[in-house]
Amino acid sequence: MKKDIHPTYYPKAQVNCACGNVFTVGSTRELLDIEICSNCHPFYTGKSKIVDALGQVQKFKERVAKSKKK
Fold this sequence. Notes:
By secondary structure, the protein is an alpha+beta fold. The chain has a domain at 1-47: Rhinovirus 14, subunit 4 (Irregular). It is built from two helices and three strands; from the N terminus they run βββαα. A hairpin with a 4-residue loop joins strand 1 and strand 2 (22-27). The model has no long low-confidence stretch (mean pLDDT 86).
């Protein structure tokens, strides 16, 4: 490695998830704040969540029902 061109590496950087999970990783930042980790991600937990923004899921289901009627 060339000297004085790489960022400082922190082998024990702390990661704080929004769900409350805390763990350490290697990173160029000392503290990382994340929203989703393996403890709360639906793929790893097996629990799916539908985030409905302004009824978009309901609108989609209505469009699918209309297309099936035709």
